[in-house]
Specification:
This protein is an alpha+beta fold and 782 residues long. Helix content is 29%, strand content 24%. Strand 4 and strand 5 form a beta hairpin. It is globular.
Length: 782
């Protein structure tokens, strides 16, 4: 045996190891490179987008001559300068890159809509020039909120209905019945890195774009559409994003297309990076909802019938609103069996910025609706809300069919809830809280435990596919490229661990590279919590292809049976000998064995008929439960989450450290949505909360002093996911619904729990104070 082939003992850090994020040290040190950190190429132009100041109007005159004459300006582009289609929409072809041209004017449909682009030698020069544009508007009727859109009958599509059984008949014969309404606010993504794109022109009209996007292939395709070029002419690259949360799934295309158009028109590189205020004004949010419910139940709190009406503000164009509102319907059951149910969804078109994907993708709004119903039923019956929830959980045969007729085959919610309730001592704490409230006239406590059941898969079936490219080099190092994008969630380290596990090498051998459209084509967005599921399986497929070639090579070279070749932490075992992995790879190279492979994966079993809203849209469900405790001041409405205990099912975790981080981040972001983050539009459709001074995301001080997060040790996945893991990106956000329920419990104590609070979301201090006063007033009026 040659010395170079001698095996060395190596500890494999593959799947299930709690490894740090691949960029963790660079994040902390500030050396992680984002697009705005890249060296600016010579001749770089800075692009600023001129924006509409009206919610709905016809532009009768647009004069950009003063803009062109402004110092530092190199190019000014409007709709008439687009060589291809004036369209950056993901689905319905109703999002324009520029809404106007000097020749023909145009129609604007929201404040902040892109009208033209100014390219100058500095961003300051571009902004100063854009301010010199001359507009003349003819105002048109505008619907700013859901009520106005309802009155004007403006919808992005016909209302949708999902039903099982006869809900109206069940309601009519129910022993008890209550109706209610409440509102759910939207949420800004508030990613740390804003929207940004850097485009560099190439030969023959080609362009390379660094884009902060969750969907490089879509950016590629839409830029090609704008430029009237084939997809091969556009290359889009993403190394990392400083957060996205859904806000860069579709809406990054506008900024990338503007930069690319400038680059191709001028022959100079171009960067488009709006500042925070511009970003918040121009980009869509989580959809705000209005919910109406009509629920029938018995004296034991068991639901007999439910009619649920969901109305959402979609904004001026379609974006992803159809699928988002569909998912709100899918998750309006959460973890509960609804014997007879009708869910009607209205998708209203408003003259505000088009709302878009946000972590949970409509699921949080649907889930909050049913949890509000559970609290209302508990208040009406005088039962503990947790007991009402337990009595309505999915069960076995006859209680396992969703409203869209998917069978719930692996229901672990009862076990999770029982385990968390015991470990956090829920019953004793509930008694203690109510004892405290009985003797505390001003400060009130609340506690609640709520479950999560979240479907995993894109509900648009064709998106459930992924590709990967793997190179094994002659020194044993491995280059990994896949279609997923890294936005801080840790998909890259997870997929690298999958590859390391396959070859039984340390993860340090696996080099993670930028996501680039010329390496893995036609990819889906990194969304729907599917990044590790899809791309991990695609990378594993590529690794298995290379391994099969290596096994065949070793069996032939050393004259052994294929089953005598094994990849081990010590090296590649061939018969009775073990070879160091790098040496073995070089032997394969010298023998002219292909050490590169593509991988592909398509999720099995799923299907869905949108016309009837029936099928199996989800490959599996992820589960979790959270118990939250809050303290409110009934004189000011101030609130603090004092404790939260979380138990979450991630299956067999690919990386427990990453998963715990995702759960904590999701929970805190959900807290923000439900308590502090309030979007305010004025009567003219202008967003008034467009900066950190007026829009309040949670800070480290809002994190509960006691925050206990645990992965469910019994977790597993009955479906053949990558190493039997489960998705973890979106489901934890909805654990924060327990905070909203706990606030309701605290407010209800103002009238000794006799009056159910009228409290929507976000439960800001103002909203909590008004709810407390409303409970007092209603108590006096009885």
């Amino acid at each position: 045996m040659a010395d170079s082939g001698a095996a060395a003992t190596s500890a494999v850090q593959g799947v299930h190891a709690p490894l740090p994020h691949d960029s963790a040290q660079r994040h902390v040190a500030g050396s992680a490179i984002y697009i705005d950190d890249l060296p600016e190429p010579p001749g770089l132009l800075h692009v600023h987008l001129g924006m509409s100041t009206r919610a709905h109007a016809r532009i009768t005159r647009l004069d950009l001559s003063a803009v062109r004459a402004s110092p530092g300006v190199v190019s000014v582009l409007s709709a008439s300068d687009i060589p291809g289609q004036n369209d950056v929409s993901p689905v319905i072809h109703d999002d324009r890159l520029f809404a106007a041209s000097e020749a023909s004017g145009g129609e604007v449909y929201c404040v902040g809509q892109s009208l033209f682009a100014v390219a100058a030698t500095s961003i300051a020069a571009a902004r100063a020039a854009a301010a010199k544009a001359v507009f003349e508007y003819e105002d048109l009727p505008a619907a700013i909120d859901i009520a106005a859109a309802r009155a004007m009958d403006l919808k992005i599509e016909a209302s949708q209905r999902m039903a099982r059984g006869d809900a109206q008949a069940a309601l009519a014969t129910s022993p008890r019945r209550i109706r209610g309404r409440f509102a759910i606010g939207g949420q800004d993504h508030f990613y740390l890195e804003g929207q940004v794109a850097l485009a560099t022109p190439g030969e023959d009209g080609d362009v390379h774009i660094w884009s902060s996007t969750q969907h490089p292939s879509e950016v590629q395709h839409l830029v090609a559409r704008v430029l009237d070029r084939p997809h091969t002419a556009v290359t889009v690259a993403v190394r990392r994003m400083g957060g996205a949360f859904g806000g860069k799934e579709t809406q990054a295309s506008l900024f990338a297309a503007a930069a690319a158009l400038v680059a191709v028109k001028t022959g100079r590189p171009a960067k488009c990076r709006p500042d925070r205020d511009e970003d918040m004004v121009m980009t869509g949010k989580r959809h705000d909802f209005e919910v109406a419910y009509d629920v029938g139940f018995d004296d034991e709190g068991r639901l007999t019938g439910l009619a649920l009406e969901l109305s959402s503000r979609c904004g001026a164009t379609t974006d992803l609103s159809m699928a988002i509102n569909d998912r709100a319907m899918f998750h309006a059951d959460n973890a509960y069996f609804l014997p007879a149910v009708e869910i009607v969804s209205h998708r209203f078109k408003t003259h505000t910025v088009s709302n878009t994907a946000f972590r949970g993708f409509g699921g949080p709004q649907g889930m909050l609706a049913i949890e509000r119903v559970m609290d209302a039923v508990a208040a009406a019956t005088g039962l503990d809300p947790l007991e009402v929830r337990r009595r309505n959980l999915y069960g076995g045969e006859g209680r396992n069919l969703t409203p869209y007729r998917q069978v719930v085959e692996d229901n672990v919610a009862p076990q999770l809830i029982d385990e968390l309730a015991a470990s956090c001592d829920y019953e004793a704490r509930r008694r203690d809280v109510e004892a405290f409230n009985a003797t505390s006239p001003v400060l009130k406590k609340g506690v609640a435990l709520t479950p999560v059941k979240f479907g995993i898969s894109f509900t648009t079936t064709h998106l459930n596919q992924a590709g990967a490219l793997l190179h094994l080099y002659a020194d044993g190092s491995i280059m990994l490229n896949h279609g997923g994008t890294e936005m801080g969630q840790g998909v890259n380290i997870k997929v690298a661990q999958v590859v390391a596990q396959a070859f039984q090498v340390d993860v340090a051998r696996v080099k993670i590279t930028s996501t680039v459209t010329d390496k893995v084509p036609n990819t889906s967005a990194t969304a729907a919590s599917s990044g590790a599921d899809l791309n991990g399986m695609a990378a594993l497929n590529a690794a298995e292809t290379i391994k099969a070639r290596l096994v065949e090579f070793a069996a032939r070279k050393w004259n052994v049976e294929p089953n005598a070749v094994a990849f081990t932490p010590e090296g590649v075992r061939v018969g009775g000998e073990t070879f160091e992995f790098g040496w073995f790879a070089r032997q394969a190279y010298l023998a002219r064995i292909s050490l590169s492979a593509t991988g592909f994966y398509a999720t099995p079993k799923i299907h869905y008929d949108r016309a009837t809203h029936t099928g199996r849209p989800f490959y599996y469900f992820a589960y979790g439960a959270a118990c939250s405790e809050v303290l409110i001041d009934t004189l000011t409405g101030e609130m603090k989450v004092t404790r939260a205990d979380i138990l979450h099912d991630v299956g067999k975790s690919l990386n427990p450290a990453i998963d715990l981080g995702q759960i904590e981040g999701g929970f805190v972001q959900g807290m923000g949505w439900l308590t502090t983050e309030e979007l305010v539009y004025d009567a003219q459709g202008r967003l008034r909360t467009h900066a950190p001074s007026t829009y309040k995301i949670p800070t480290c001080g809002d994190r509960p002093a006691h925050l206990d997060i645990r992965l469910w040790k019994a977790g597993r996945n009955v479906e053949a996911t990558v190493h039997r893991s489960k998705a973890v990106g979106e489901p934890p956000l909805m654990l924060a619904i327990s905070v909203h329920s706990a606030i309701c419990h605290a407010v209800a104590s103002v009238d000794e729990y006799r009056t159910f609070p009228q409290l929507g979301a976000p439960a800001t201090p103002e909203a909590i104070l008004m709810a407390c006063e409303d409970v007092k007033r209603r108590a006096r009026d009885v």
